[in-house]
Design brief:
Elements (H helix, E strand, L loop, with lengths): L1 H18 L18 H6 L11 E6 L4 H14 L2 E4 L8 H11 L4 E4 L2 H8 L23 E2 L3 E14 L11 E2 L21 H11 L14 H13 L11 H5 L5 E5 L3 H6 L18 E3 L1 E2 L5 E8 L7 H14 L2 H11 L2 E2 L2 H7 L17 E3 L2 E2 H19 L20 H4 L5
Parallel strand pairs: 1-2, 1-3, 6-9
Antiparallel strand pairs: 3-10, 4-5, 5-7, 5-8, 5-10, 5-11, 12-13
Helix pairs in contact: 1-11, 5-13, 11-12
């Protein structure tokens, strides 16, 4: 599958280079990184000549060593100088936001999720302000946009998978109304072994969706929701780091139902036989596994890009930052990023390059993160407003012990002091 996608991408990039005048007389003056035209006009409305010698300081949590190395090299090839720390220096969205806010030297930020971007756009952080900016491809990212501020780069979701062979449901299809119905499914399931982590938090958000109760003192979730999540934890199977994120236990046949994140699923199934003698088979056309059909849909997160309003930066330097953001979010660059790192682009043109035969099933699921749950509040916004309460509740009650010997007794739900449980124990 990778080779097919790479061929389609190469063809698209070749056409793009031809349109920009690439491949001609090398003695000619090279075009600017955006290839000029409407791109430069819209992302740089004053027509200021960008200062391409300027080093663009970037903050991100999408910063594995492989990603930062790729981005630095590709940006240099496109005519930009960038500075970005990998995850040995900055790890996670909280660290990225804190570093940018404290250092006050950032030009651009990308990655994160709706929770953090809502805070950024709303001015939650003292030293971070997102400046007005509209790229030419803004209309290609659909609903993943904070108009005039930030625009979607990649999306991913959490998935519930099951085996339908003799190690699973033995041919029976599995369908739920809600994610939380897993606790009554009659099959064994994997669950995470700690409270923290982006994927773990997204799974919890999916599990709690059916229990939203704005009037509840238990973090805006009904007590029945917390009882259900406790059952999911107490009766689920965890195997330490060997079971990280849930693919391995399903692939080995140790559980019948599991959870995983979309961006690495197909690559994992391609290589499933390397880590199991009973592997999952069929990447794009499943043979012995499938997605649980969940009526609600699933919880998506999107990573965005926005330009920071940095004090002391010249207009020419700002123009260079905007040109870089224009380039990075473009269809060709996002298709290349998606091909390299198994991510699915928000940019519909990039998605068409990566998947010319249509959107993969895992990205056709209903997105309840954008469903309204409290007036005009989306569930993603609701999660953002309550996530710290949920983390405190789970931590204080002892959810997701890593080892069975550390299992906690189920709380006496009728006698809990939620006002205290929603506060950090530290």
């Amino acid at each position: 599958m990778k080779k097919m996608l790479a061929l389609a991408l190469a063809m698209s990039m070749a056409l793009s280079l031809a349109a920009c005048g690439g491949g001609g007389d090398k003695s000619q003056t090279p075009p600017p990184p955006s290839c000029g035209g409407s791109s430069a006009t819209q992302s740089n409305p004053q027509g200021v000549e960008p200062d391409y010698d300027y080093t663009i300081r970037i903050y991100s949590n999408s910063n594995s060593t492989e990603r930062t190395t790729w981005l630095i090299n590709e940006a240099k090839e496109a005519g930009f100088n960038i500075s970005i720390d990998d995850n040995s220096v900055i790890s996670g969205d909280t660290a990225a936001i804190q570093a940018a806010n404290e250092n006050k030297d950032g030009d651009l930020i990308f990655g994160l999720n709706e929770t953090r971007w809502s805070q950024l756009v709303d001015g939650t952080y003292e030293n971070l302000k997102i400046m007005d900016w509209t790229p030419t491809w803004s209309g290609d990212v659909g609903e993943y946009v904070y108009p005039g501020k930030a625009y979607g780069l990649v999306i991913q979701n959490v998935l519930m998978l099951y085996r339908n062979d003799e190690l699973g449901t033995n041919g029976a299809a599995l369908s739920f109304d809600h994610w939380a119905d897993i606790v009554n499914c009659g099959y064994s399931w994997y669950r995470q072994n700690k409270v923290g982590g982006t994927t773990n938090a997204n799974i919890n958000s999916a599990m709690l969706y059916a229990f939203v109760d704005p009037a509840s003192p238990a973090g805006g979730i009904s007590v029945d929701g917390w009882k259900t999540l406790w059952k999911y934890c107490a009766e689920g199977k965890s195997g330490g780091d060997d079971y990280k994120y849930g693919f391995d236990p399903l692939n080995k046949g140790d559980v019948q139902v599991s959870t995983f994140y979309s961006s690495s699923l197909y690559g994992k199934i391609d290589a499933a036989g390397e880590s199991s003698d009973k592997p999952l088979k069929g990447t794009m056309e499943p043979e012995n596994w499938n997605l649980v059909d969940i009526k609600d849909g699933t919880y998506y997160i999107a990573e965005y890009i926005g330009v920071l309003d940095k004090a002391g930066r010249t207009e020419a330097q700002t123009a260079a930052v905007q040109e870089f953001a224009e380039w990075f979010g473009s269809a060709e660059t996002q298709a290349a990023w998606g091909e390299e790192f198994d991510s699915y682009p928000c940019n519909s043109e990039a998605a068409s390059i990566l998947y010319p035969n249509g959107i993969p099933p895992i990205y056709q699921l209903k997105n309840f993160a954008l469903s309204k749950v409290d007036g005009d509040t989306t569930y993603a916004e609701y999660v953002a407003a309550h996530s710290s309460d949920w983390t405190n509740i789970m931590t204080n009650l002892g959810f997701y012990w890593a080892d069975a010997s550390e299992a906690k007794a189920e709380p006496d739900w009728d006698s809990l002091d939620w006002a205290t449980l929603t506060q950090s124990a530290g």
